[in-house]
Specification:
Number of domains: 1
Number of helices: 5
Strand content: under 5%
Order of helices and strands: HHHHH
Structural class: mainly alpha
Number of strands: 0
Radius of gyration: 17 Å
Largest sheet: none
Oligomer: single chain
């Protein structure tokens, strides 16, 4: 499996694992409002990542290569919907903003972990 597919698979899997782990920790160790922020933030960013991934994979399939404008329109629609949801959650004080920030960091954390593991693999591969 080449590096791009391996990284995408790792990040996709790690997104859901980190989301469930952080959500579970939030539910166990914090207030419902804080845990709700973690859950909503993690869900928003993880679903957005998967939708973007699916859009890009479909964009590069040879028989039906779509216009780049279609990808941009889908991206901005997701961006606007996510922004609106975040606005409602924060303005109505339904969730804790710090918990929301932690939840929104799930994808960044999984990409960071994927980078660390890939660097480790490259270093040990060259050492052998």
């Amino acid at each position: 499996m080449d590096i791009q597919k391996r990284l995408l698979k790792f990040v996709t899997t790690a997104n859901w694992i980190l989301f469930f782990a952080v959500s579970l920790l939030g539910v166990i160790f914090s207030t419902p409002r804080f845990a709700g922020g973690i859950i909503f933030g993690g869900l928003i960013v993880t679903v957005n990542f998967h939708l973007l991934s699916r859009t890009l994979i479909n964009f590069f399939k040879p028989p039906l290569i779509a216009s780049h404008n279609v990808v941009l329109v889908k991206y901005y629609i997701r961006f606007i919907i996510s922004g609106f949801i975040l606005f409602v959650l924060v303005s109505k004080q339904l969730v804790d903003p710090i918990g929301l920030l932690i939840g929104l960091s799930v994808v960044v954390a999984s990409i960071f972990l994927a980078t660390i593991f890939e660097i480790k693999n490259l270093i040990f591969k060259e050492a052998v």
